[in-house]
Amino acid sequence: MIAAQSTLNLPDNQRIVITGIGLTAPNGNSLGEVRDALLNGRSGVSDYEIRYVGKTLAGVCDFDSRKYQARKDIRRGTRAGSVGVFSANEAIANSGLDWENVDRSRVGIYMGVTEHGNVETENEIYELKGYDYDIAFWSHHHNPRTVANNPAGEVALNMQITGPHYTIGAACAAGNAGVIQGAQMLRLNECDVALAGGLSESIHTFGIFASFKSQGALAEHQDPTRASRPFDVDRSGIVVSEGGCVFVLERLDDAKRRGAQIYGELAGYAINTDATDFVLPNPERQSECIFLALRRAGLAADQIDIVSTHATGTGSGDVQECAAIRTVFGKSERTRINNTKSFIGHAMGAAGAIELAGNLCSFQDNVCHPTINVDQLDPECELPGLVLNESQEIDKPEYILNNSFGMLGINSAVIIRRI
Amino acid sequence: MTPAEIRNEILDILEDIAPDEDLSGLKDEVAFRDQLELDSMDFLDIVMELRKRHRVQIPEESYGELASMQSTVTYLEPLMKDLQKA
Q1: Is this model's pTM higher than 0.95 or not?
Q2: Same structural domain for residues A322 and A225?
Q3: Which of A39, A280, A362, B1 has the CA that lies 20 to 30 A from B22?
């Protein structure tokens, strides 16, 4: 348990900072591209087709997988692995670390994933059908592709990292969970550099689309760019997206020593559990999670400048999160509230990390990007401070709080301080 | 299939499983591993592709026969001589 005090009171070797960001999102393959898209209302959602489901919508990434991988490694590995390899290499390049001279045994990899193995298993069964389900034709690549640590392991192989690597399965809270895990490992001195964040290859599994469709939670819209519309009264559900975002995390003393650029400091965090339902959220537990993160950061709600919401565009999920936010921030005049999924859809395991990254730029440009596609605000989503459709200039922000929630009732909140 | 056709088929498989390699100068009598970056999973890919494409079953004790192009073609010739080139 972290003491209920500001990290400002901790020694520098217990303060964790972000010193590099690498990402691929449906609306950009660098932080600069994504930020530009967010400030100019550019969606990354497009028409998409996948077996059995047919025509649908998705957030598709177009990063250059060959930038860091040989064709053979792409063929052998997974899409999540490629997303991770790209994002991690970009993060290291962005961090300014002298990578050739970094002790790779002191680098840890902590990648949040919503799920892993569905894509590869579906593909293999599809192939096997062509051989009348004779398992002699089942690929020997199946196990290394589907082990839960695969995406993190592919990053380790590609970058010759020999420190710890694993994935953190945390449903759609995984992006935040990866960051939290990385910070904890740095504080425990398990590593000196943490590559932490979240990854998703979910658009390549028909099962995700089909399951949301069966649940009545898959977004539909004639215009793909208008399909993801959290808080709007006509929202119809989730747009599934792929993507990845990896942060370079370091202890503050190490970052200072090498004169690193610092995007922000992890001021507080919390993860808790609803323990009430497989899919339905629980606003009481969500607000408790946010309050816990605030308490650990030694902050009051009205010190948070931006709340980056998790809202996915489902009927009940958005209302429940707004209820939780209302409980915590209902009286805060300072706090602005936005949503990044309205631009890129729901990047699943990567969502929390990409959404946090997109908001971190506010520390530099003093702008809060909006929630787009809100033509008519759902009265039940009415909140003071909602930034709708147009970016808003704000006073120099000091704190950003990033919500990320997931199925089986996992809630997470991360607070980043300007430094 | 003739030995030359079998050789072409193996080359085609290698192009799939080792797409970064330049196969134009492949020496038939030299072990694959001494001239290409192939590991045990790649050799299993060769076995799997022969099974998928031609229903040729190679027992595990014969995997060593796939060491070089020359030994592979020699080993496969009796198994594939009655097959028609696709």
Answers
A1: yes
A2: no
A3: B1
Interface of B with A (CB under 8 A): 16-20, 37, 41, 44-45, 48, 51-52, 57
CB contact under 8 A, B44 and A136: no
Tens of pLDDT, residues A29-69 = 999 999 999 999 999 999 999 999 999 999 999 999 999 99
Q: How far is B56 from chain A (nearest CA, A)?
A: 12
Distance set, CA B35 to CA A135, A244, B29, B46, B49 (Å): 32, 36, 11, 16, 21
- SS3 of A76, please? helix
Looking at the structure, tell me whether residues A44 and A116 fall in a common domain: yes
Q: Which residues of A touch B20 (CB under 8 A)?
A: 70-72
Residue B26 lies inside a defined structural domain of this protein: no
Give me the domain span that covers residue A110.
16-257
Residues A273 and A386 in one domain: yes
d(CA A88, CA A363): 23
> Does A140 contact chain B (CB < 8 Å)?
yes
Report the C-alpha gap between A128 and A99 in whole angstroms.
43
Smallest Cβ distance to A137: which of B19, B41, B52?
A: B52
Nearest CA in chain B to A141: B41
Rounded to the nearest 10°, the torsion over CA A383, A384, A387, A388 is 50
Q: What is the pLDDT of residue B84?
A: 85
Count the domains in chain A: 2
- Domain hosting residue B61, numbered range: 3-19+32-79
